Amino acid sequence: MSAAEASIPMAEAIRRGMAECSPAERKVARVLLSSYPSAGFETVAKLAARAGVSGPTVLRFANRLGYRGFPDFQQALRDDLDERSASPIELYDRRHGEPDAGEASGLARAASITRETLERTFGALAPDEFERAVELLCAPRSRVLVGGGRFSGLLARFLAQHLQLIRPGVASLPEHDAGRVEAIADLRRGDVLVLFDYRRYEEPTRRLAAAAKARRASVLLFTDAWLSPISSEADVVLPSETGSPSAFDAMTPVLALVEAVIAECSERLGDAASARMREVERAGRELDLY
What we know:
Strand order of the largest sheet: 2-1-3-4-5
Largest sheet: 5 strands, parallel
Structural class: alpha/beta
Order of helices and strands: HHHHHHHHEHEHEHEEHH
């Protein structure tokens, strides 16, 4: 199914479509993703020059995604940006303007949407990206720092607390500014910054990613299918579908993906994870906390 036919975000459509592109067309895709979305609004000539290809190659790339021409591609990009930046109140107004869904109860409707969103999340996930994420989190000498946004911070803490049970050197990003400055200042090559960033993307989170890259740390990003701006500089990107029965983006698929990462990390660490959990249990009993 082409991007023009499928109801998937543009950035994700470009990522998926790269496998079917010619080498020259893949150059166009990489430029678009590295400077998304601004590169998509350049002229055909400018985009071709940035990618080091011909103008017809850019047009063939747009055709490959299912668009009749470059103006059609750019209009789809504008529509995608409207969706990408939608606020909860905009989603609420849009949902209440839709026709009645019929006789299905709210519970049945929520169950259906949740199942579909979970299936799309895991169906679209690139196995090599998942594998790379696990490798980063299990690297024995790395330090892992985990942070998120207003709501996704809950998931960041969930991941950090589980990783702390199975390996040393894991910390949650402090809430206060001074603590964040110190944590980022300590990052070095080989360390990993894990960030959660979802639409209405947070500029402070992007700055954290940039600072980590400047220190040659790796960045692992959990984001939505519209892809946070951080995706252009992240080493690994794990997107989730966020469709929900309400005006708020669903975090259930993100939690399911986080749990899958935790499970695979536990398997990968093996005896080291078991020894770590036993040590944590002993420390808890010594302090009379368990």
